[in-house]
Amino acid sequence: MKHTDIKCLLTSDEFLGKEVTLCGWVRTSRESKTMAFAELNDGTSLKHIQIVIDRENTEYPATALRLGTALKVVGQVVEARQGGVEINAKSIEILGECPPEYPLQKKRHTLEYLRTMPHLRVRTNTFNAVFRVRSVMAGAIHNYFQSRNYTYVNPPLITGSDCEGAGEMFRVTTQPFAHEYKNEEEYYANDFFGKKAGLSVSAQLEGEVAAMAFGKIYTFGPSFRAENSNTPRHVAEFWHVEPEVAFADLSDIIEIAEDMIKSIIGEVMEKCPEELKFFEQHFEKGLIDKLNSIVSEDFEVLDYTKAIEILKESGKEFVYPVEWGCDLQTEHERYITEEVFKKPVFVTNYPMDIKSFYMKQNPDGKTVAATDLLVPGVGEIIGCSEREADLEKLLDAMKKRGMNEEDYADYLDLRRFGSVPHSGFGLGFERIIMYVTGISNIRDVILYPRTVGSIR
What we know:
By secondary structure, this protein is an alpha+beta fold.
C-alpha cells in the first residue's frame, strides 16, 4: 500500500498542510473525553509522530490505540505546538491487532529482559537506534573501501582449513551420528565433501588469494567461532570486515585501519545525530565528545614490550599476571586505553608464540609484525598484521604448530608464485558498534546473538 515514511514527514517541510497516508505501530497513546493521541513509529526514524484524533468527528475501532497495534492513518500534516509536525487524523484503519498482553509496555525494560524476546525487542527505542546505526555503519564501510579502489569479494563460509589454527571451528556435516566408522578419517571420507569441513573463522586466507590478483580487496560477512567464552564481548557468530592489501607493510595497514575507523565513525555522526543523542542520554555520558575526539586526534602506537613495562609499573593488581610473552587480557587492554592514554591504541610487535602462524616474523626472531587496535570501554576491535611472504619461514611456523601443509596448499602457492609484501586486518563489526553506541554487551548489537548453550 502506498504511504509516506514517517522520517520524511518529520524532516521535510513539503508535506505541511497536505493530506498524507502513513502506517506504523502504536508506541504510546492516551484518550480524553473529546480527544485522543497516539504516537506512531514505522521504523524509518527514532522519533515518533503524533496522531491527533478528534473523537467527536473521527470514528476508529475501540482497540486501535493499544500498544503494538499496526495502523494505517490518513490525515493532514500540521504544525505541532511543541515544534515539528503532527497529524490531524481523518481515518484510522487497523492493519494488525495487538492484544493487551503485549509484552512491551510503557515502562522501560532492562536489556537482559529484552534478550528473552529478540523477535520483539527490535520495536523498542533502544534497538530501533542500535540497528539504524548498524545499517548506516555497514554502508559507511562499503563507501570507504569502494571509494578507494578496493574490490569487494565474497569468500566461502564453508572451508576445509582453520585460518587461525586454534581448533575453534564449527563442523559442517551431512552425516548422522553413527558407530560403524573405524575412525574420524573414514567418517569424513563418506561425508558430503569427502573430507572434514567447517564454518569459516575468518576470510583472511581467501582474501590474500584475491589480493594477489586485485591488489586491494575487502570482505564483509559472517565468521563463526566455537569459542567457549560467555563474556559481554563474545558471540559464536559475528560479522567481520577484512581488507587485504598488497604492497603494504605493517605501518601502511595501521594507517589504513586508523583512517577507516575515523571515516566510518564520522559518517555515522553525520547521519545518525538523533540516535547518538539517545545513546549519550541513556547509555554513555560524554559519548559524542568521545567520538569527536576519535575523529580529530591521532591514535597512539605502542610497542608490546613497552606496554608490558607500563602494566608492570602500574601498581595495579590484575587478575591475570603480566609478564613478557603473555597475551593481553581485557583488563590490561582497558587499563592502557582508559587510564594511560585515554584514546585508541595500536599495540605492535607481539611475541611470535602467542600470534598466528601467518604473521611476518620480525628480525629479532621473537616477535611478529602484528598489531591490535584497543579502544576504551571495549578492548580489542581490530587484529592486524603484515603477512609472512617468505615461504620457508611460513612453512617453519606451520611445522612448529603441527599444521598439515596439504590443507593450506593454495595458500602456500601464493608464496611460490609472485609473492609480495602484504598486510591486512580484521575488524569485529559488532565491537565497533558497541564502541560507537556505548552499548556494553555484544548481544545487544546483533539481531539474534549466538552464544554458548543458547540458540533461538
